Amino acid sequence: MVKQMNTLSVTDPDYAVLYYQCKHEFPMAAPDLPKPVIGRVAATVAFQQQPVPAQGSVNPMMGAAFMPPARKPEGCAFCMNLGHCIRNCHSAHDYVNRGLAVYHDGRIKL
User: Fold this and answer.
1) Among 75, 88, 89, 90, which has the highest number of CB atoms less than 10 A from its own CB?
2) What is the dihedral of CA 40, 42, 48, 53, to 10 degrees?
3) 38-73: per-residue pLDDT in tens?
4) Which residues pair with 104 in a beta bridge?
5) Please, where are the H alpha helices in the chain?
6) How far is CA 78 from CA 43, 49, 72, in A?
7) Between the CA of residue 81 and those of 15, 30, 75, what are the distances in Å?
């Protein structure tokens, strides 16, 4: 994704799409990327009203989300390290032992 972004100008609408996808999937890396520059023309085109389908027809995009649903993290969702999950996370168990978190319904709650 970053290789694709390097070949584009920050004013390119495709760059903006890739930037926001990267920001969504890799929030820790996004601050290091140059932000897209959206001019008046690009902003006007991006927010134009969509055509209304004729009565009786079905719009397949109706209700479609712009961003895909969040994926499960690769590795531990508590400490974000790879190689284990929350069930085997030393940091999570330490939080519970120190009273900073509790087990509730099979989940750790802060």
Assistant:
1) 89
2) 170
3) 764 444 445 555 566 566 655 555 555 566 666 766
4) 107
5) 2-6, 13-25, 40-46, 90-97
6) 38, 41, 12
7) 30, 19, 6
